[in-house]
Amino acid sequence: MFFKKQIPVGIDIGSSYIKIARLVESKQGMELNLFDMIGLPHGTIVDGIIEDKGVVSSALQELLAKNKVKSTDAVIGVAGHSSVIIKRITLPTMKEEELSNSIKFEAEQYIPFDINDVNIDFQILGENRDDSNQMDVVLIAVKKNVIKDYADVVENAGLNLIVVDIAHFAVGNIFEHNYGVLEGECVALANIGGNSSNLNIVKNGIPLFTRDTPTGSNVQTEALMNEFGLTYEDAERLKKGLSVDEVPPENASYTILSASEEIFGDIQRSMDFFKSSISDENIGKIILSGGVALTKGFADAMSERLGMPVEVLDPFKNIAISDKLDSLMIKESGPIGAVAMGLALRRVGDR
Predict the structure, then answer these.
(1) CB-count burial class (<10 Å; 0-12, 13-18, 19+) for 126
(2) Which terminus of the chain has a lower count of CB atoms within 10 Å, N or C?
């Protein structure tokens, strides 16, 4: 008997929405045949930590049922400065098998957590450019309890978890799939969600620097709530450029952009640290994704504030959308879907 190989669903459990996506291979390339999202109550997830597993599980089950997704494989992503550590390190050249055996010992000096409380992975990038006897390695450590919480949510929804990825790398994968490797150009991939920002600076498809900060678009929401006495939901509407009674659009815009200074400052400090401590590479542009990219005027303000081009990521740029899906809704949601789309590209055995 022959069994059809399952195509995994990419699941991005963010602070504001759960997003799901599935990609199938066709003669024309990748085709999207599943994409949808569902909102989460404010405060359900904070800095990548699930505060209420029951609420998240119920929301995911509802989303899967709506789209008639039953028992299947799933790929999830994690992020958060308090639970995920990503470091680029230099080690003596060795084979991958040798590093697998010694990585726990090597990691102890770089990980600020008890080494027994984290799951560790790595990727060898290649020879160090300054020393042929050394190699560059990306070291990843994620707290075990965080992975368990996400795994519980996914498995309680009836899915089979096969891969846990990092949100930064998922954005990198979908960017490379849609835009190719920009030879010789250093690009900052900034994925900014509700209460966190992920920065991944890449060159020739290789990550040079990553950083998480606990600042996201909720600073805009809170500023609107405080300034105009709004509910969370009405503040979110204003951010998208929609009207709310008794709040002049120009006043809302001023408040949003003023609050955005906190986000801009975080990104600027991360890039300054990269340039002063990690590499003298010149960052050519920022590729923006996450819910904040839907905030009216944000990308332009970011470009002006940081003094470099800012382009909003289109995760569907080089991917066909099935006729069965609402392509208008999907394209309007574009940058929110970056992580889910990157996760949907993953297959067992990928590095």
Answers:
(1) exposed
(2) N
Rounded Cα distance, 41 and 15, in Å: 9
Distance between CA 224 and CA 230 in Å, rounded?
7
Cβ partners under 8 Å of residue 55, min gap 6 = 40, 41, 44
* Strands of 17-26's sheet in order across: 160-166, 73-78, 9-13, 17-26, 29-39, 320-321
List Cβ neighbours of 47 (8 Å cut-off, separation of 6 or more): 80, 81, 82, 83, 195, 196, 214
Domains for the chain: give ranges and CATH numbers: 9-220+256-344 (3.30.420.40)
What's the predicted TM-score (pTM) here? 0.92
Helix (H, G, I), strand (E, B), or coil: what is residue 217? coil
As averages over each run of 10 residues, the pLDDT of the chain (351 residues) reads 68 94 88 95 87 95 94 91 89 94 90 92 90 93 95 94 94 95 93 92 92 91 94 88 84 92 95 88 94 91 96 95 92 93 81 53
Task: Write the single-letter amino acid at 64.
Answer: L
Outline where 113-248 has alpha helix (H).
144-156, 167-179, 218-228, 232-239
Tokens 């900014």 sit on residue: 192
With beta carbons less than 8 A apart as the criterion, state whether 204 and 183 touch.
yes
**DSSP class per residue in 37-97:** EEE--TTSEETTEES-HHHHHHHHHHHHHHTT--S-EEEEEE--TTTEEEEEEEEE---HH
Here the tokens at position 287 are: 């590729």
Selection from 351, 260, 343 nearest residue 73 by Cα:
343
pLDDT tens-digit readout, 118-164: 999 999 999 988 899 999 999 999 999 999 999 999 999 999 999 99
Interaxial angle between packed helices 144-156 and 53-66, expressed in degrees from 0 to 180 and rounded to the nearest 10: 40
CA distance 292 to 296: 9
